[in-house]
Amino acid sequence: MTPTTPDAPADRAPAPTATLRSGSLGTADIAFFVVSAAAPLTVMAGVAPLAILLGGIGAPVGYLLAGITLAVFAVGFTTMSRHVRGGGAFYAFITRGLGRRVGIGAALLALVGYNGMEIGVYGLLGTATQDTAHALFGADIPWLPVSLAGLLLIGYGGYRSIDFGAKVLGVLLVAETGILVLLAAGVLIKGGAHGLSAASLAPGNVLVPGTAAVLAFAFAAFTGFESTVIYRREARDPHRTVPRATYLAVGFLGVFYAFTVWIVIQAFGNAEVVRAAGEDPGALFFTAITTYVGGWAADLMHVFIVTSVLASLLAFHNAINRYALALAEEGVLPRPLARIHPRHRSPYVSGIAQTVLGALVVLAFWAAGADPYGQLLLWVNTPGMIGLMVLQLLAAIAIPCYFRRVRHQEGTLRTLVAPVLATVLLATAIVLVVTHIDHFTGASPTVNTLLVAVAPVAFAAGLPLAWWLRRRRPEVYESFAAEPDEAADSTPPSKDATASAPSNGLAQ
C-alpha cells in the first residue's frame, strides 16, 4: 500500500490502517497469475484448432513469433519497472512517459480492458461447464446459475489473501498444463500418426495467406502477461522478481503454445489435421487425447477446461482489484475502493465492486436472451483484448520518451532499440487483430465496428476527465501516478536503478 505522506494532497485517499501483504509473492507465484490468466488449456483446446484451420500446419510458428514480439516488448517494460514503482502498472508507465492526460486515458482503458477480459469469460464458464456435464453425465444444465456461482467463487478467492490465490492458481495451472503434457507424451511415444515431422517450420508452410489470422489468434493468447507489474507491492525483491516473472511467463507461453499446436498436428498428420479441424474444431484435442492416451484422459480434459477458466477468472479478478485500488489511492475512483482487509490484506472493496459489476453484465446478457459464448464471451472479451493490446502499444511508446527525460544508467538497447522495435511489432499485431476481428466474434460488420470502437472511446473519455481534474481537483491531477516514497518499497532499488523523473517533470 502506498503510504500518504504529510504533504500529500487532501483529495488523495488517506492511507488505511491495513496494507497489501508485501513480500508474499515470489517469481513462480507471479508467473502463475500471468500464465493462469492466459488459460493455456482453454486457448489450446478452444482456439488453436481454428488457427490450424486458417493457417495450416505452419500455425505453431505464429505462436513463436507472438512470443518473440512480446519478449522484445518486455525488455523495455521490465527495465522501466525498476524506475516506476507505483501500483498502476500500465497507466503509471504511460503517465511517466507521455504525460498525465494520456495516462488518465490509459487508466480508464485499463479498467475497461481488464474488466472486459474477465466478465466475458463468465459466459465461457457457463458453456464449458455445460459441455463438461453433458460429456461426462449426459446432463443438460443452464448456464446462468453456473456463471453466477462462478462470480461468487471468484469473488471469495479475491477476498482472501494474495498468497491464497497464488496457491490455488498453482494447483489449477499444474492440472491444465499437465493434461496437455500427457497428450504430448502419448503422441511422442507413439510417433504421431505418420512419424514426427518438422514440416511446420518450413517457410513454405509458414508464409501462407492464413498466417496473418494465426498471428492475430496468437497475440490474443498472450493477453494479460504484463500484469506482473501489478503485483510489485506484494512481491519479494520486486526489482528482480517482476522482470524474472515477466520473462518466465512470456517464454513459457510462447514455447508451450507452439509445442502443443505442433503436437496436435503430429497426432493427426500433416495431411489430415486441417480437414479434422474443419470438421469439428472443438473436438480436435479431445479426439487426439482419446486416441493416444485414453477416454479417461479426455474426461479429465473436460474437467480441467472448467478449472482453467476459473483460474483465468481469478487471475484477472486480482489484477482488476489492484488497478482499482491504485486509482482509488490516486483519488480518481471513489475512496472506499482503496480499503484493504485488515486480516487478508486484500483490496476487498474493489473486489466486491468488480463482482457486482460482473453480475450486472452477466444478468443483462441473460435477460436479453444472448448466447453466453457467441455474445457474452466474444462481444465483451474482444474489446477487452484490443484495449490491453493498445495499452501495450502506448507503454512501448512511453518507454523511450521516459528515458529521454531522466538520468539513468540503462543501455540504449533496453531504453530505445527494443521499445521502438516493440512499438512497430505491437502496432502490426493490433492491425492484424482488427482486420481479422470477424474470426474472433463471428458478428456482423456493424457489431464488429462497435466492438473495435470500445477501446478508443474508453481512452478518449479520459481526456475530458483529465481536463476536469486539472481544473476542479488540481491536487489529484498533479499527483496522478506520482512515485511513492522510497520507504514504500519492501526492497531498496538495485544499484543500476536511478531516481525517476519528479512529478513536476511530467508532460502536461
Automatic annotation (TrEMBL):
The keyword Membrane applies. Residues 34-475 form the Amino acid permease/ SLC12A domain. This is Putative amino acid permease. Residues 481-508 are annotated as: Disordered. GO terms for cellular component: membrane. GO terms for biological process: transmembrane transport. It comes from Streptomyces spinoverrucosus. Pfam families: AA_permease (PF00324). It is found in: Membrane. It comes from the Bacteria. It is a multi-pass membrane protein. The chain crosses the membrane at residues 30-55, 61-81, 102-125, 137-156, 168-189, 201-225, 245-265, 285-316, 348-368, 380-403, 415-437, 449-469. The keyword Membrane applies. Keywords: Membrane, Transmembrane, Transmembrane helix.
